[in-house]
Each structure stands twice: as C-alpha cells, then as structure tokens.
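Re: your question about Chemotaxis protein CheW

S., sorry for the slow reply, the queue was backed up all week. Below is exactly what I fed in.
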Amino acid sequence: MQLIVFTKGEKYYGIKTENVGEIIKSTKIFKVPQAQSWVEGLINLRGTIVTLVNFSKFLKEDENSLHKNIIVITNEEEKIGLLVEDIVGVFTIDSEEIQTLDSKNDDNVEGIIMIQDKLTNIIDIMTIFTENEGSI
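Result:
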C-alpha cells in the first residue's frame, strides 16, 4: 500500500494513493457563499469545477493559512480538492504496520503509522465526500 504524506503544522497525515488523482499547487479559489466553514471554495481544474476543502478547518483545528498544495481526491466520477501545507512524499508501507485505534476518538482517522520517525495519522478521506454531500 502507498500513502501520500503531508503536513499540517508539525503533524504528519497520510492518504492512500488509490484515492488520489493528482497533486497541484494552490490556484485561484472562487468563494462560495453559505457553504460549510471547511469548504474553502471552488477551483477550475482544466475545465472541471472541483470543491476545495480546507483540511485544517475540516479537522476543526487551528488554521495557519500556509497551504501550498491541493491534493485532488477522486471517488468514482466526483473530485474534491484538499488544501494542505507541504507534501512530504509517497511512501510504501505494509498494511500490517498500521495501528488501528481501539476507541474511535476521531472518525476521520483510520489508523496510525510511523513514517520518518513521525507519528502519521492515516485519514479516511471518504468521510470528506460523505460530509460534503449537499454542502454546496
């Protein structure tokens, strides 16, 4: 299994590459009035309109506005952009090394794993699609 690992402040987060279409640099964002607080707006991705989710706001954590990259997540026909800080890299991991959480404190975290001596939260990115339904 491969993970794309990115940062939010000092923390590392990972997303399975099977859900990632591409990574782009931050681009012009069109604000959407009355959208969810974690919806940053819409972007034009080569003619396709994509909802842009602010990862920090989605996790209900402090926002530092240091976003440099957009990870485009695909789910069948739908795409969502995830606004993140720095991309650490793509790592091949053994799924048996993932530690699942006994008590689900955070519905968005599938498990944790050590990458580059950093505890990395593996995000269940499909929850973003579920929560985004009907928000725009």
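The two ends are 33 Å apart (CA to CA). The longest helix spans residues 126-132.

Happy to talk it through on Thursday.
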